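Recap from last week: sequence in, structure out.
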Amino acid sequence: MSSSPVIELIREKLDIVDVVREYVPSLKKAGRNHKANCPFHNEKSPSFTVSPDKQIFYCFGCNEGGDIFTFVMKIEGLTFPEAARKLALKAGVEYGDERSHAMTEADKERLEIKKLLTAAAAFYNKTLFSPAGEKARLYLGERRLSKATVERFELGWAPAGGTALMDEMKARGWSRDLALKAGLITEREGGLVADTFRGRIMFPIRNQAGDTVAFGGRVLDPEAQPKYLNSPETVLFSKRRTLYGLHEALPQIRKSAKLLLLEGYMDVIGAHQHGVDWAVAPLGTALTNEHAGLIGRYAKDTVVMFDGDRAGINASVRAAEIFMEAGIYVRLADLGCTLDPDEFLNEYGREEFEKKMAEASDPLDFRMNLFFKGRKTPPSSQEKAQAIAVLLKTVAKQPDEILKSEWVKSLATRFGVEEASVLKQLRKVPGASPKEARRGAAQAVQALPSIERGFVQLLLRDPSLIEASALLEPEDFSSPLARRLFEAMRALPATERAKAATALAAQFPEDAALILELAVADLGGETFGAQNAAGAIKMLKRFSVERRLKELKAAEPMDPQQFKEYSRLMSELKSSAKEI
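Predicted structure tokens:
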């Protein structure tokens, strides 16, 4: 990781716990560290750990880890200079121009793509208010969007001609290769290229930091397909990890800890225009585990309100199950009519809309209400059995055992059957998916002999103990990995040893996850650094001697030099046995 006086000053002024808590409000103190559910993958129990002592974070589930800069880079999708500039602003430090700081070629390309996408958004927005955008402006007017809302979301128009954007970008010096990587143009057969978006209303898609990373486009021609088109996946954009409107909604979501998940662009924009400014939407795709994890970082109260047609209801149910599997409580809302949320807001206003949100029910109640809705006669025994069998699949996915028990009672009461029968049927339903397998660093940790693992961990937790290990040599470790880490720690200048974990993670990127895990892992019970280190040194030395003695024995008959070494080591071994 880059370092300079400015970077070091930022590290001194900011505490990683405070920075992480802005993104992960659920971060709680746990012993010497702080813990929460990981913001980088879905999990039911917290394995994401932040160490205030080491100023690093590490997740024992997905092996993500690093320092304050790495965290901001990963969570916001930023390059190092962008993350440093953001943190410098928070720390009140003058960062200077990106060009004065080292950037990788990949970082430079990401920045150029961001600049190109920003320029494309401005072009589309300018075109919307030109004569070419008249039909688009009329459509937006019919959808009752104000000019202020259009400007806030920077809506635009992509001309129907095949090269309007490409010509504009070329005239401004942008390369064809970069435009391809940004997803703004598409290559066809024969090497010909054309604008990706043509004859569409344009919706810039922004990341949490407010950078344009992609676009969505809606056709006006009812015969054209597809109705909505998103940018392709790029280095900046993953549809599975992005929510439309999140940047605009974040201030209110962070303030209220509530989030409304709607189905599409226009629903989100209409909600924000009416003051329901905690609304977001997936990008024309079903809710993913990544979306659920992202939402779980910010919101404690999540309401899903998709369209009222069959497809929307089915999508709501699937979304609820994904939330449950991620350990997130969610409620489902129904407008009770065929209007889309933005149409409902225009017709009845915010007050009536919020009443519908307040009536949102948990996933099981929502599905039971659908079953009984409009029914004039009680269900037959067979209908009850079939419905309960379907609903128990939702119950089985509920990880909260107390809530699961309550749901069993609700099912029995609502359908008028014995609770014991429902519980018996539930046991036949496959349970939640198996726990995620530990990988990478966990396997590497287990591969280290316990005494060597413990000693390396002691040094990472308290690098001042390196001075006490002068009697040890790298050869005293049986594991090549432990040997390499010990040698590197001993070679660190004294002034750098306090940051041994981050320094070694940068030096050995292939072992970074393991190093960070050892640095933050609980040592177990009370630890007395110097005393534990002294004992570990004696044990490591003893085991090293025993290994060498075994090698010499295997070389029999020994030559005089080997026999002399064997006798000396046997004497050392007897002496060490008395001391231990």
